[in-house]
Design brief:
The C terminus is likely disordered. The protein folds into 2 domains: 56 residues, no CATH class; 68 residues, no CATH class. Helix content is 32%, strand content 22%. The protein contains 5 helices and 6 strands. The chain is an alpha+beta fold. Strands 2-1-3-4-5-6 form a 6-stranded mixed β-sheet, with helices on both faces.
């Protein structure tokens, strides 16, 4: 089970506080644009495989998965270079500016599936111009 606090950042910038990401999707699939049939467990499918099957397509549609715990502060998304990446970083910067969400002076892990890896960013680097940074400017 999750250890820490989690959120979904929707493609339109809406923030939803959650306990567990897959559980939130299962409770309100229509909110995420998913049909109940898409949530049906495939015969023999293990939970990690199910999570990937359901959550990765959401990330590719512009959702951002956020988890803060004692060790990590992670933003997980899928945005190639260009406008999609600018918009994802803009929404992360806006999230960090929000009340009670995070400390911009901390280091955050960006797990961008389009990059095929993880990068560290200082929160303050995302806030001043909200989305004008590229992965090369990471800490």
């Amino acid at each position: 089970m999750p250890s820490g606090t989690g959120w979904w950042i929707f493609p339109d910038g809406t923030v939803l506080g959650i306990w567990e990401h897959l559980g939130a999707v299962e409770r309100e699939p229509e909110r995420f644009g998913i049909t109940p049939e898409e949530l049906t467990q495939v015969n023999g499918e293990r939970r990690p495989d199910r999570r990937r099957r359901i959550l990765i397509p959401l990330l590719k549609q512009g959702f951002i998965r956020v988890r803060f715990d004692r060790q990590d502060r992670v933003f997980e998304f899928c945005a190639p270079q260009g406008p999609a990446l600018d918009w994802a970083l803009h929404r992360i910067g806006a999230f960090l500016r929000g009340e009670d969400y995070g400390d911009p002076s901390e280091i955050y892990l960006l797990n961008n599936h389009a990059w095929g890896g993880r990068r560290l960013f200082k929160g303050n680097d995302l806030i001043p111009d909200c989305g004008k940074h590229t992965p090369e400017q990471s800490v």
